[in-house]
């Protein structure tokens, strides 16, 4: 009986110990969602400096296409430089979060990007996965545009095309 009691107590303690790791306080998940929303708002304002401030110093931007992953930015300085150039090349580019799913270490979004193309308005929908290192965005996995997005989708895997 004593062995059973020790076994049961061990199971209870193990369950309690793991519950903190699996389900952090809701505010930390909410804070990460707020950070992603602020990151997208900074993108829409074409404010690369604010985007970089929300990112880890070691941020990585990864473009995912099937089995291929391309690292397009490493570090804040490169993110700043690339985003500034991107905004100069696409002054009409904007994005909004259509759906969001939050986990303790990641926020997954479906984002609708739109811009003015040479032949009129364009848009595409893509999935992004934001990984966190504490309170800052550590890594962004950007997936190709969905085939079912609006006419004019380019299917690219870079930041909204």
Task: Break the fold down into its secondary structure elements and pairings.
Blueprint: H1 2-22, H2 26-44, H3 48-53, E1 55-65, E2 68-74, H4 76-89, E3 94-102, E4 106-117, E5 120-133, E6 136-142
Parallel strand pairs: 1-6
Antiparallel strand pairs: 1-2, 3-4, 4-5, 5-6
Brief synopsis:
The chain has 161 residues and is α+β, with helices and mostly antiparallel strands. The protein has four helices and six strands; from the N terminus they run H-H-H-E-E-H-E-E-E-E.
Structure, explained:
The protein has 161 residues and is of the alpha+beta class. It has a single domain (24-142), classed as Roll (Nuclear Transport Factor 2, Chain: A), CATH 3.10.450.50. It contains 4 helices and 6 strands. It has a 6-stranded mixed beta sheet with strand order 2-1-6-5-4-3. Residues 1-26 and 152-161 have low confidence and may be disordered.
Number of helices: 4
Which structural category fits the helices and strands?
A: alpha+beta
- The quaternary state of the protein chains shown equals single chain
**Biggest sheet character:** 6 strands, mixed
Mean pLDDT: 81
Encode the helix/strand succession as letters: HHHEEHEEEE
Q: How many angstroms separate the termini?
A: 67 Å
Q: Approximately what portion of the residues adopt beta-strand conformation?
A: 35-45%
**CATH level-two architecture:** Roll
């Amino acid at each position: 009986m004593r062995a059973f009691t020790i076994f049961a107590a061990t199971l209870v303690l193990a369950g309690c110990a793991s519950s903190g790791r699996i389900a952090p306080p809701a505010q930390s998940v909410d804070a990460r969602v707020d950070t992603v929303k602020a990151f997208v708002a900074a993108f829409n304002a074409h404010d690369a400096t604010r985007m970089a401030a929300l990112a880890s110093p070691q941020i990585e931007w990864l473009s995912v296409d099937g089995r291929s992953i391309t690292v397009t930015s490493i570090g804040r300085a490169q993110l700043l430089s690339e985003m500034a150039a991107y905004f100069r090349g696409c002054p009409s580019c904007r994005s909004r979060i259509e759906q969001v799913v939050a986990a303790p270490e990641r926020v997954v979004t479906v984002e609708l990007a739109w811009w003015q193309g040479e032949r009129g308005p364009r848009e595409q929908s893509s999935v992004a996965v934001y990984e966190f290192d504490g309170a800052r965005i550590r890594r962004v996995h950007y997936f190709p545009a969905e085939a079912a997005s609006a006419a004019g989708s380019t299917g690219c895997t870079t930041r909204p095309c």
